[in-house]
Hints:
By secondary structure, the chain is of the alpha/beta class.
Amino acid sequence: MKCRKCGSEAVINMRQHKLALCGEHFLEWVPEQTQRFIEKYKMFTPDERILVAVSGGKDSLSLWNVLLRLGYKADGMYIGLGIEGGVDYSNQSHEMCDKFLSNIKSQISNFKFQTSNSQLPQEGNSEIHDLKSEIGNRKSEINWQPTLRVVDIAKVYGETIPDVAARTTRGRGKPCSVCGLIKRHVMNRVARDGGYDVLATGHNLDDEVAVLFGNTLTWNSGYLLRQAPVLPADKPGLARKVKPFCRFYERETAAYALVRGIEYIYDECPFAEGSTSIAHKEILNQMEKDSPGVKLQFYLNFLRAREQGLFAEHAERVELNACEKCGQPTSAPGLCAFCRLWERRHRDTATTLLSKGTDVITNQ
Ligand code: Q46
Ligand code: ZN
Ligand code: ZN
């Protein structure tokens, strides 16, 4: 298979686009497409500050890489869940995020050194050449020094995610429901307290289509209405949520990480095993094999239908209140689900820590 742009050996063939590309052109294509999606869905502008939720996996680290390369002011946020799962999952994924940060920073400083000396990129130093060609004229924004904000759940609240899950009835024995609730809350809070305009996650097309498939099987119009590449902030002070990779297949984000040389954690969270969304992904992959592009079409046609208001009139209208304790939006008056989760355990300590913002460690 040959690259459509230069005729050399292709590293990836994207059947749904009828497009095969070599490594060099694929590394150009991914940021170009990302920029196109950012503009098409009006995700953010170069002036806005972005917080990228990173898990140490290929999608989120590739996203952070691409946004920095495009010249955006993107910081990372890692949430330590305290999941061991026989593979030291949380520690390993944290390590990958730290490694990513130090690698990207050395690339940026190399690039600055090159430009400030008005030298051409050294032959063979493709990293520097890539940074130069992709960032183009946005030289001032190369000065953005990314930071990684880390929140360790066990250190702040005294319990790991599996510990919390074990003492609640939420999620019927699986920690995912508790985990999702805690992650959403912490992400919102760090974005709000850090003054970020946008919260970006690395969800890819396969993730989005699996969720869509599940919600379509049950015709959950409330969830269908809330599934989109951009979710506006629920309340003043909260960040908008965006998914700049929502149109890339999982194999494309994996290929980007591999070709770009980004180290990431290969293991999935041990609790993901046996989940409905993984089962749905398998079914969808079988369908994609038989008719390339079916996943993308399913998603794009859904977005079009949603845009045309197909689910709007069926959605329940939920009045949102501000939680009495943390101020985040909640459907019931009083405390939000997150604050109720910790209520009995430590009434005062978490509030003190949270109000002072002392739980966020920033790596620079
Ligand atoms: S991290 Fe958390 Fe996922 Fe692990 S415990 Fe479940 S929700 S599977 S994305
Ligand atoms: Zn090529
Ligand atoms: Zn609350």
